[in-house]
Amino acid sequence: MSNHRAGLVGVVGRPNVGKSTLVNALVGFPVAITSRKAQTTRHRILGVLTRPEAQVLFVDTPGLQNEHTVALNRQLRRAAFSVMAEVPVLLWVADVLKVNDEDLSIVKALPPEASVIAVLNKADRIQRDLHRKAAFALGLKLAELYPFKAIVPVSAQTGFQLEVLLAELIALLPQGPALMDAEQVTDRPLRFMAAELIREKLFRLLGDELPYEATVVIDQYDESPNHTVIHATVIVGRASHKPMVLGESGQRLKRIGTEARRDIAKLVGTPVELRLWVKVVANWADQDKLVQSFGYSEPS
Ligand SMILES: Nc1nc2c(ncn2[C@@H]2O[C@H](COP(=O)(O)OP(=O)(O)OP(=O)(O)O)[C@@H](O)[C@H]2O)c(=O)[nH]1
Ligand SMILES: [Mg+2]
C-alpha cells in the first residue's frame, strides 16, 4: 500500500455553481443538500471517497458571495475562507458558461502556495460551437490568473469527466494511509443530516427570498432499531414568512414534511415519524448569538 494517497480537498466557489452536487457525485452518496437557490450549503461538510488506491476527504463549503452581509452570511464566508486558507489542495468550481467577476475575485483570493484544480462544471450545457469557443477562451484566461494544476470541464450531473478530475486530484494528495473508516461517507451525525434534508425541501419548495431567512432545528431525535422519531422546528426571521412556509391550510409544510421524511427514512434505514413546527425568531440571521445557537459556527 506504499502508493496509497489520502488527504483533504477543499471545494470552494461562488454559490450555485454545483459544488455540493459535485461532492455528492464524487463520493457517490448525497452528503450535502443541493438546490437552485444561492447559499444552499451553510456548513463545511466532509464527504469521503474511499478507493483501493486513495481516500479523498472532500470539504464542501458555503458559496462565496457579497450580496448578503448579515451575521449568517459573515459566518458562511468565514467557513469558506478558513477552508481556503487551511486545506492545501483545493477545487475551485465555476459554472463553465457563467463565469463572472465574483468567480474571478475568488480566484484572486486563492492562496498562492495551494494546489488548485479549476473545475468548470455544468459542461453538459456546452452544446453549441459558440459555447465551446467561450469555454476554451475561459481556460486560457484562467491559466493566466492563477497557476492551476489542471483546468477540467466536468458535469457533476451527468458524470462527464469526473474520473479525469479524480485522477488529477489524487495525484496531488500526499502518500499515506486512509484517514477514516472505509464505510464512513461523512463526519456529520444523522441528526444533522436529517435537519439538512428538511432544509433542502424548504429551499426547493419556497420562493426566492425566503430560504435565506429560514433554518431548521431538531428538537427531538429518538432512534430505535426499527423506528425513528424526529421533532423539528422551521425557524423564520419574519412573521410574514410563517404563512408562506405553512401554505394554504398547511399544505406546503405538509409537503416539506412528506418529502423530508421519505429521504430521512432512506438515510437512517427505518420508518420515520416526523413532526414539524414553524416558529418566528425575529431577524435571527443578523444576530451572531442566534446564528451560533442554531448550529452555525466553525468546527474547532
Ligand atoms: N446542468 C447542470 N446543472 C448542475 C450541475 N451541477 C449542479 N447543477 C445544478 O446547479 C444547482 C446548484 O447546485 P448545488 O450543488 O446546490 O450548488 P452549490 O455550488 O453547492 O451551491 P451553494 O451551496 O449555494 O454554494 C442545482 O440546481 C443543481 O442541480 C451540472 O453538472 N449540470
Ligand atoms: Mg452547496
SSE class: alpha/beta
Give the name of the CATH architecture of the largest domain.
3-Layer(aba) Sandwich
Radius of gyration based on Cα positions: 20 Å
Estimate the global geometry from the Cα principal axes.
globular
The count of helical stretches stands at 9
Strand tally is: 9
Structure description:
Helix content is 36%, strand content 23%. By secondary structure, the chain is of the alpha/beta class. The strands form two sheets. Strands 2-3-1-4-5-6 form a six-stranded mixed β-sheet, sandwiched between helices. Strands 7-8-9 form a three-stranded mixed β-sheet. A hairpin with a 2-residue loop joins strand 7 (214-224) and strand 8. Helix 6 runs antiparallel to helix 8 (251-268). The longest helix has 18 residues, at 251-268. 39% of the residues are buried. Magnesium ion binds next to helix 1.
Question: What is this structure, in a nutshell?
Answer:
By secondary structure, the chain is an alpha/beta fold. The chain has 2 domains: 5-172, P-loop containing nucleotide triphosphate hydrolases (Rossmann fold), CATH 3.40.50.300; 190-293, K homology (KH) domain (GMP Synthetase, Chain A, domain 3). The protein is built from 9 helices and 9 strands.
Topology:
Elements lengths: L4 E9 L5 H9 L17 E6 L3 E7 L10 H16 L2 E7 L5 H9 L5 E7 L7 H17 L4 E4 L8 H11 L17 H16 L8 E11 L2 E10 L5 H5 L4 H18 L3 E9 L7 H6 L7
Parallel strand pairs: 1-3, 1-4, 4-5, 5-6, 8-9
Antiparallel strand pairs: 2-3, 7-8
Bound molecules: guanosine-5'-triphosphate (GTP) and magnesium ion.
Structure characteristics:
alpha/beta, Rossmann fold, GMP Synthetase, Chain A, domain 3, 36% helix, binds guanosine-5'-triphosphate, 300 residues, 2 domains
